[in-house]
Amino acid sequence: MARKLELGHSSSTTTSSPHRQFSVQHMSSQSALWLTEKQGSFALGPKEIPTPGPGEILVKIHSAGLNPIDWKIAAFGFLVEDYPAVLGNEAAGTVEAVGEGVANVVEGDKVFFQGPMDNRGAAFQQYAVAPAAVASKIPPNISFDEAAALSVGIATAVIPLYSQSPVGIGYQAPWDGGRGKYSGQPIVVLGGASSVGQYVIQLARLSGFSPIIATASPHNSALLASLGATHVLDRNLPFSAIADEISKITAVPVGLVYSTVALPDVQQGGYDVLAPGGHIVLVSTSSINPREGDGKKIVGVFGSWHAPGNAAFGSAVAPELTKLLADGDIVPAAVEVVPGGLGGVVAGLERLKSDQVSAKKLVVRPWETVL
To answer: Which domain of life is it from (predicted)?
Structure first.
């Protein structure tokens, strides 16, 4: 459990927005989980409630998702430079205030969003600001906990598949005239039970890819089949056996492999089953030894709408996600609520680090925090 951190409180009782005056429950500070220093420890403590600027919204966070990137930042000290720092990359909650120029959401809307990696927008706090353009409204059939598990996985799936080169492959998105367009073209999803893998499978189904071949533990086969996988192969098999099974399933050359798995033999195996000129998407750092002249392309991905070149695409995708969720075309990953509010984050990240989470997302509810 995170220890308590003593930080100063602001003395004001209201927060001023460029767009309008508002009061956040007559509060000036909130609870947050701080990473006290680079590669340091976590501590609970107070934090000033941020003010939404032009194009931003202030969100009361009801649920925040945990991701492997969170423990990796803490352990290895990359991506974040200023400390103490608040981490957390995805959240869902209620819009408390809007900044100047915001038109797509209003106060009281329920939204989910991917936070920028800074102390104003990070998810492990009770209030955060977010760019309104990349915030999606939560439809009535989706809970806050489910919505908090969406943003990172969907961004990591959507960006490499549907954004244009050099960021992505540039397939025509199913919400932009590409629904069913790639019928008869196989896809292989390595690590299909991960949250990213689940969204890749669902997007592949909407785009018409077939067959959709995924690897996963056998106990997750039914889940992946319900999402659209036509074949689920045992991830524990040697990759040579997996490759043999793929060749039996489809005689059509495999033009697309998506790997959520970092293991070098799995990445290399995915590359080897790929047809000349095809694409393999890697969530992790590449361990592949490519062969010159085969035309195979390795596509790395940083699943963030806030990365350079992704913001405009993200703003176009945000309202489409609301529709896909409302229609049941995209189903959120199963979630597990870790008790203790922000105080439960450290234990949850340890479980992710130890690979003790399968086919679901861990979330916390910041307002259950006890300092």
So the answer is: Eukaryota
Opening angle at CA 20, ends 123 and 31, nearest 5: 25
Burial category of 193 from C-beta neighbours within 10 Å (exposed 0-12, middle 13-18, buried 19 and up): buried
Contact partners, residue 154, CB within 8 Å, separation at least 6: 199, 321, 330
d(CA 286, CA 256): 16
* Measured distance CA(300)–CA(54) in Å, rounded: 32
Please report, for residues 1, 3, 119, 349, 368, the alpha-carbon distance to residue 343 in angstroms, rounded to integers and kept in the order given.
6, 8, 18, 11, 9
User: Residues 321, 330: contact at Cβ < 8 Å?
Assistant: yes
289 contacts 264 by C-beta, under 8 angstroms: no
Nearest to 18 by CA among 129, 119, 121: 129
90: nearest Cα among 321, 353, 354: 321
Compute how many other C-beta atoms are within 10 angstroms of the C-beta atom of residue 320. Answer: 17
pLDDT in tens, 66-79: 999 999 999 999 99
Contact assessment for residue 221 and residue 232, using Cβ atoms and an 8 Å cutoff = yes
Taking only the tens place, the pLDDT of each residue in 211-254 is 999 999 999 999 999 999 999 999 999 999 999 999 999 999 99
